[in-house]
Amino acid sequence: MDELRKMLYDEVVKDLDLTEEISDEALYRKIDEVIFSEGKKRKLSGRDRLKYRKVIFAGLRRLDILSIAMDDAAVTEVMVNGAEKIYVEKGGGLVPYPDTFTTPEKLGDVIQQIAAAINRRVNEASPMVDARLEDGSRVNIVLPPIALDGPAVTIRRFPKEPISMQQLIRWGSVTEEAASFLETLVRCGYNIFISGGTGAGKTTFLGALAEYIPDTERVITIEDSAELRLRNVKNIVRLESRPPNLEGAYEVTIRDLIRNALRMRPDRIIVGEIRSAEALDMLQAMNTGHDGSISTGHANSAKDMISRIETMVLMGDMDLPLAAIRAQIASGIDILVHLGRLRDRSRRVMGIYEVTGVSESEVQIRPLYEFREEGMDGDRIIGTLEKSNLRLQNTEKLLARGGQLPFGGPQQEGKD
Length: 416
Prior knowledge:
Blueprint lengths: L1 H13 L9 H19 L3 H16 L4 H5 L4 E7 L4 E5 L2 E4 L7 H14 L10 E5 L5 E5 L9 E5 L8 H7 L4 H12 L4 E5 L5 H8 L8 E6 L11 E6 L13 H8 L6 E4 L6 H9 L7 E5 L3 H15 L5 H11 L2 E7 L5 E13 L2 E16 L2 E8 L8 H5 L16
Parallel strand pairs: 7-11, 7-12, 8-9, 8-10, 10-11
Antiparallel strand pairs: 1-2, 1-6, 2-3, 4-5, 5-6, 12-13, 13-14, 14-15
Helix pairs in contact: 1-2, 1-3, 2-3, 9-10, 10-12, 11-12
């Protein structure tokens, strides 16, 4: 079947003038001519003819064999380990993909097509790149000689419509009570940091939280590869970093974008993910009047996230004393939301924590909500996000904006 696909593809390409632009309709007509001619000889069924029609068109205009996976709404991730080893994540599990690229060169063509679409360059001199597709899917590419077994392409897919907080509630990722509590904090301008491991749903949760940002505010989003889609924010500016060219020039980093964003009169700054020295700039933004800013980071727990932020700040300025860094964290971040992906592959809010200050040279956090596992129902974990008996201490922003905590949420200090 692979040989036939390659032969049909070569027959189509042979008569095309690749120096001229050809419409989709004209390309389909050419493909149909070749398939009709060859189909009569080989007695191809109508289903096979339709399959080859789609695959050949995808090879010329889309992502070749990966287009079928990208059209499947159930596929959340596509992993290419060379031209002949492809896996997809479907229903929370990894399964081998039933098709392969006809040649390594065809995989190379798809990679260059992805990179060129957003003016990125990937080659032996610059073998790693982050990119995105038209539908917002995030792509990471690693080429040989860095990737020893052939080009590695990882595509993280996102739903066509952003996932809402109500959907997360229905899926059991967060309780309605905790979501109402977070809604109040977002509207009242609390600075929130979302932590979690890879695939825990940090970006999805950030987008859902951003639904609660008042539409009267100006928001600047900053990302390595633009993924966020904030539906209700009208006054929004989306910024994306840029890697250096082959000469090492024209790089625009996350740090550069955060600093520039401060001159753009933002009410809130949203940074898709903090990975390095930009943590210092994000903390400074949170500490200079940009209340309600939100960001995410990788960590295995809320406590680990605090340690990682300290480390990332030191990457930007080794001369800063640790005590000053911890003071910046404690005054800049109000709330930590930690997400997890459990062994049943469900994504849950594992805890909501308040950052209360620095004590005994450590940043102090305390749980307002924590996930409690109660057992198993078949393969699914049963549990709930339970409210603790601790109270919200920092009520200044809440009172300044006339906010009230929802019934049943953690009460503010000094009230019953």
